[in-house]
């Protein structure tokens, strides 16, 4: 086996620090404790391990923790300087050290009067002006006053973007569907596979379609290719439309004015944001334009308000009662001490079905790093694999592994009590499944109980004994229950900000820069190099035999298509 190709001389010291070592010792003592015992020992466990924030309830009592565990985890957070780093983030210090940038998605939703400075400039007037521009534009489209080249109002909005310029607004539109304008439809095109845009365009008419080209850099190949295809479709399909009509059907969201102009979009149709907003943290900025049009600016502002309230909670609440901090430290506990590889997000609200995909990016792109802030090797696990799907569907699919697999998979169960649907019986069934699953994951089913159930079902003794080992559930699988009263724009804002801050805290504990993404940049560069080779049919770069073999296979078969 070849040795590691990357050998960094320095190692991050985290695992030798007092707080870490204290947790290690503690872990050895408590690792086998079953949650059933913890609940038996403390009849008040629910009230001791749950918190309320506005209309949100966090119950973290079904975790493999004691008071001592939590105290040691908070000690670790303090030792890592979570409070100091948090304060630096909110005041615009350039905590994204590899790119020399501030990290200020919180300024986008700063609903207080407080100024926020980047390089001595108060950015709040810029933020407010852009929000105002979004309001005017979204009102105009929603009221039917934005008239296309053929004299018709807009009925379909197509957001062309990828990654951070797609997942956030897409997820928000799905989550807030009940608030959507009834005669507007919104679509998201991200994949450069032509099937994506073609299948959509077949259903649309140029006269009534508005394209939002969303790209922070305005250099992303997939987005610009899709945008060019859309432009061509518009010009070809629109009959008497000319280049001048593009301004009625194409707007841009970007930080890069030059590139927007070069693409042919009038900069008066450009919505701005700034380099201190990371792509995956940008849904609060003008990247949220599609969602603002879809649900209306008032609801978009409510979303910001909800996030701002969570920002205040995160800033002002002691660590011991601080929801993002608690969730983050529980994640550290399982990832670094129990060696949990992944963590599942299981929303039971259908409208939150895109949340897992959104959080996959938010979390894994932020904390999927193996080098610490100072460039030293991280000798401990960092970001976990985040995955998930609608909880209720998962019960009929992958939950088997959660209940009886060999891995420890901590879960976030998310529910809204009051559905936007009109059938109460559905809500009760949904809630009962939610409650039953977290209970079963915690308690499991021991041998005696299982034997009794088999006897009650009149299963013959020898069959029952054969079946017995397969029907035992170990339990002790941790879960957080995050329950909101109703999925309103405000509640959604708080929920998303909660996860953003959880990710932040974990990044600080692991001493990472959560705000760069060199892995993504690598993908963009490599693809461009290989594209040159595909287009020119010449071998321009050295490749391993696998990549070369595949490249040739693609070349041969692309010629045929
Ligand atoms: C987000 C990432 C990445 C980015 C996309 C699109 O944090 O950097 O997902 O959002 O690559 O980039 P553009 O917005 O520049 O097109």
In short:
By secondary structure, the protein is an alpha/beta fold.
Describe this structure in words.
The structure is a single chain. Helices cover 50% and strands 11% of the residues. By secondary structure, the protein is of the alpha/beta class. It has three domains: 3-93 and 317-516, Glucose-6-phosphate isomerase like protein, domain 1 (Rossmann fold, 3-Layer(aba) Sandwich); 117-302, 3-Layer(aba) Sandwich (Rossmann fold), CATH 3.40.50; 519-560. The strands form three sheets. The chain has a six-stranded mixed beta sheet, sandwiched between helices. Helix 8 runs antiparallel to helix 16 (355-367), helix 15 (323-337) packs across helix 22 (489-509) and helix 16 packs parallel to helix 22. Glucose-6-phosphate is lined by residues 162-165, 215-217, 220, 223, 278-280, 365, 517, 520. Glucose-6-phosphate binds at residues 162-165, 215-217, 220, 223, 278-280, 365, 517, 520.
- Cα(first) to Cα(last) distance is 41 Å
Q: What is the fold named in CATH at topology level of the largest domain?
A: Rossmann fold
Task: Provide the β-strand percentage band.
Answer: 5-15%
The computed structural class is alpha/beta
Q: What is the molecular shape? A: globular
CATH superfamily of the largest domain, called what? Glucose-6-phosphate isomerase like protein, domain 1
The average pLDDT value, as a whole number, equals 96
Per DSSP, the total helix count is 24
Top-tier CATH class of the largest domain: Alpha Beta
- Bound ligands, named by name, code or SMILES: glucose-6-phosphate
Strand order of the largest sheet: 1-2-13-12-10-11
β-strand number? 13
């Amino acid at each position: 086996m070849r040795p590691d190709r990357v050998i960094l001389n320095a190692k991050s010291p985290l695992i030798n620090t007092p707080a870490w070592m204290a947790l290690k010792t503690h872990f050895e003592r408590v690792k086998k404790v079953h949650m059933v015992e913890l609940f038996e020992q403390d009849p008040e466990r629910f009230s001791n391990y749950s918190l309320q924030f506005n209309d949100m309830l966090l119950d973290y009592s079904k975790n493999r923790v004691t008071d001592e565990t939590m105290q040691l985890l908070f000690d670790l957070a303090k030792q890592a300087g979570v409070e100091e780093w948090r304060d630096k983030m909110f005041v615009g210090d350039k905590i994204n050290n590899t790119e020399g940038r501030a990290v200020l998605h919180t300024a986008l939703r700063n609903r207080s009067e407080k100024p926020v400075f980047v390089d001595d400039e108060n950015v709040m007037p810029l933020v407010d002006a852009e929000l105002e521009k979004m309001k005017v534009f979204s009102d105009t489209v929603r009221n039917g006053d934005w008239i296309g080249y053929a004299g018709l109002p807009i009925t379909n909005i197509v957001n062309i973007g990828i990654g951070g310029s797609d997942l956030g607004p897409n997820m928000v539109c799905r989550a807030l569907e009940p608030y959507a304008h009834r005669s507007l439809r919104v679509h998201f095109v991200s994949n450069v596979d032509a099937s994506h845009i073609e299948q959509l365009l077949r259903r649309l008419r140029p006269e009534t379609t508005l394209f939002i080209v969303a790209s922070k850099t305005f250099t992303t190949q997939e987005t610009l290719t899709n945008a060019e295809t859309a432009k061509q479709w518009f010009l070809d399909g629109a009959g008497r439309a000319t280049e001048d009509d593009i301004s009625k059907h194409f707007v841009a969201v970007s930080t890069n004015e030059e590139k927007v102009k070069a693409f042919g979009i009038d900069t008066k149709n450009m919505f701005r944001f700034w380099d201190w907003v990371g792509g995956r943290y940008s849904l609060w900025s003008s990247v949220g334009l599609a969602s603002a049009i879809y649900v209306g600016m008032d609801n978009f502002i409510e979303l910001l308000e909800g996030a701002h309230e969570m920002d205040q909670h995160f800033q002002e609440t002691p660590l011991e009662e601080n929801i993002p901090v608690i969730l983050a430290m529980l994640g550290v506990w399982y990832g670094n001490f129990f060696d949990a590889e992944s963590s599942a997000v299981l929303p039971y609200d259908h409208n939150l079905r895109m949340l897992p995909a959104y959080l996959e990016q938010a979390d894994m792109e932020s904390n999927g790093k193996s080098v610490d802030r100072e460039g030293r090797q991280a000798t401990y696990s960092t970001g976990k694999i985040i995955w998930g799907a609608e909880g209720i569907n998962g019960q009929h699919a992958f939950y088997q592994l959660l209940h009886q697999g060999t891995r420890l998979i901590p879960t976030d169960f998310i529910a809204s009590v009051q559905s936007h649907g009109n059938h109460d019986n559905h809500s009760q069934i949904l809630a009962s499944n939610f409650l039953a699953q977290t209970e079963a994951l915690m308690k499991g089913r021991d041998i005696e109980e299982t034997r009794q159930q088999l006897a009650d079902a009149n299963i013959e003794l020898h069959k029952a004994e054969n079946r017995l080992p397969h029907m035992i559930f170990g339990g002790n699988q941790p879960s957080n229950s995050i329950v909101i009263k109703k999925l309103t724009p405000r509640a959604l804002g708080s929920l998303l900000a909660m996860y953003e801050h959880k990710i932040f805290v974990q990044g600080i504990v692991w001493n990472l820069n959560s705000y760069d993404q060199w892995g993504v940049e690598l993908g963009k560069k490599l693809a461009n190099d290989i594209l040159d080779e595909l287009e020119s049919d010449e071998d321009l770069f050295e490749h391993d035999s696998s990549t070369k073999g595949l490249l040739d296979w693609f070349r041969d078969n692309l010629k045929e298509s």
